[in-house]
UniProtKB/TrEMBL annotation:
Residue ranges constituting the Tyr recombinase domain according to the UniProt record: 227-414
Annotated SUPFAM superfamilies: DNA breaking-rejoining enzymes
InterPro entries xref list: DNA_brk_join_enz (IPR011010), Integrase-like_cat_sf (IPR013762), Integrase_catalytic (IPR002104), Integrase_DNA-bd_sf (IPR038488), Integrase_DNA_bind_dom (IPR025166), Integrase_recombinase_N (IPR010998), Phage_int_M (IPR053876), Phage_Integrase (IPR050808)
Superkingdom of origin organism: Bacteria
UniProt keyword terms in alphabetical order: DNA integration, DNA recombination, DNA-binding
GO biological process: DNA integration; DNA recombination
Protein name as annotated: Putative phage integrase
Protein's organism: Octadecabacter antarcticus 307
One example GO MF annotation: DNA binding
């Protein structure tokens, strides 16, 4: 009777010639490739796996036989190959496909490995890292005001410092309360804004799969623990009476030598711009041929570009700035900077004004109100031109009649304002301007 299993011997395997195909029985075979002489073990079986059968049928094939590699000789000996084949025959007799089993096990292993990586990544994702890499890069570009950017950065770098190195997924209301409670009564506006910003970070993390559960910074987590937030109010900026502007300019002039802060404060006054717009002004925005300062939309509060006519005195200020920066070295990008490389501090102009005797109580931003009061009460310049100079949003009808920024129509108004600031009489021809109307015949 012919032997069905274990037909081969070690000597036959060792002596097998190139191209040989030796059958050990039970589906186990030894094949030697032509030319190379390298032998490989294979196990042939008939698959009844539903997935494999469906795949073959989809291809239009009736073939159910499959070959599974068991290793190469001599690293896999005859005895080792037989042991593997025996185990696979038992699997096949139970209706399993060893190849499909391996594939599914591999996919399950990959899935688990991916889940492990995600879990490890989640564990390594700290509050500070999420703020710096995910949340703030998305939030900060929305702000036109540089002060707002600095305030948001300070919240996550300074006020929430105790949270920065903690795993984001592990932070709870007690951790957030530890940030808020020490300053809740003494610095309530700061604490209130910090809580709101931290809440927004966790909302962002929840929606992006980095945090699970209720938001640990939501006000409902603290409304029975902390006192109600004090209402955040903002009063009007204290404005210098327009009759004292010439006096202010004399005080600035007396301290102007060697002071970039003084030059910037004068520029802010003459242009009626916001402090941030002057601080971050760069030379590329200045066109001395057209005598226009073109501020890009991304630096404006209303997110639209703004053109400011450069008056004769403003041009003189620019010339002075270039001389001072040139004495230090080559001019950098920033206009109001000691060497052009770094913008002056946001408090520079305000602190300079507070050091001027008789003007300590006033604010830099209030100078815009001073300009508006003077033009509205002491001149006949159109309201639309005044509002456009202040970069305020105009109504639809007003915008239609303005047809652009009307920078040249604003130039006489700003020269008249510069004369007033210098203590000179306003040019009568400049102030007698016909006001725009919104009638159809305009």
């Amino acid at each position: 009777m012919a032997q069905t299993l274990h037909r081969l011997t070690d000597k036959q395997i060792a002596a097998a010639a190139a191209g040989a195909n030796l059958n050990d029985g039970g589906g186990l075979s030894y094949r030697v490739a032509k030319g190379s002489g390298a032998g490989k073990w294979a196990f042939r079986f008939t698959s009844r796996d539903a997935d494999f059968v469906a795949q073959q049928e989809a291809r239009g094939s009736a073939v159910r036989q499959r070959d599974m590699g068991l290793g190469t000789y001599p690293s896999t000996t005859l005895a080792a190959a037989r042991k593997k084949a025996t185990a696979f025959r038992l699997m096949v007799s139970d209706g399993h496909d060893p190849i499909e089993q391996d594939r599914r096990a591999g996919e399950a292993g990959q899935k688990k490995a991916l889940e492990d990586v995600k879990a490890l990544s989640a564990a390594e994702m700290t509050f500070g890292r999420y703020a710096d890499e995910n949340f703030l890069p998305e939030m900060l570009p929305r702000f036109a005001n540089a002060a707002h950017v600095q305030q948001w950065e300070a919240t996550f770098a300074t006020h929430a410092k105790t949270l920065r190195n903690k795993p984001l997924a592990a932070i709870n209301r007690i951790d957030v309360l530890g940030v808020l409670k020490p300053i809740w009564e003494t610095k309530n506006p700061t604490a209130t804004r910090s809580r709101e910003r931290i809440e927004r970070l966790f909302s962002h993390a929840i929606q992006n799969g980095h945090f699970k559960g209720d938001n640990p910074a939501a006000w409902t987590q603290f409304d029975h623990t902390l006192s109600a937030p004090k209402k955040l109010t903002r009063g009007h900026h204290n404005a210098i009476p327009h009759g004292r502007v010439a006096e202010l300019f004399m005080a600035i002039s007396a301290r102007q030598e060697g002071s970039m802060s003084a030059l910037m404060l004068e520029w802010i006054t003459l242009s009626a711009c916001r402090t941030g717009e002057a601080r971050f002004a760069v030379w590329d925005e200045i066109d001395l041929e057209l005598m226009i300062w073109a501020i890009p939309a991304e630096r404006m509060k209303m997110r639209r570009g703004h053109e400011v006519p450069i008056t004769k005195r403003m041009a003189a200020i620019l010339a002075d700035v270039k001389v001072r920066q040139g004495a230090v070295g080559e001019c950098g990008p920033h206009v109001f900077s000691e060497d052009g490389s770094k913008a002056l501090s946001k408090m520079t102009a305000l602190m300079f004004m507070r050091r001027l005797k008789g003007f300590e109580e006033f604010t830099v931003h209030g100078l815009r109100a001073t300009f508006k009061t003077w033009t509205a009460s002491e001149t006949t310049f159109p309201r639309e031109l005044i509002e456009e100079q202040l970069a305020h949003q105009l109504g639809a009808v007003e915008r239609a009649y303005m047809r652009g920024s009307a920078v040249e129509r604003r130039r006489p108004m700003m020269e008249a304002w510069a004369d007033h600031c210098a203590g000179l009489e306003a040019n009568e021809d400049a102030v007698n301007v016909v006001t725009l109307t919104s009638g159809r015949g305009a």
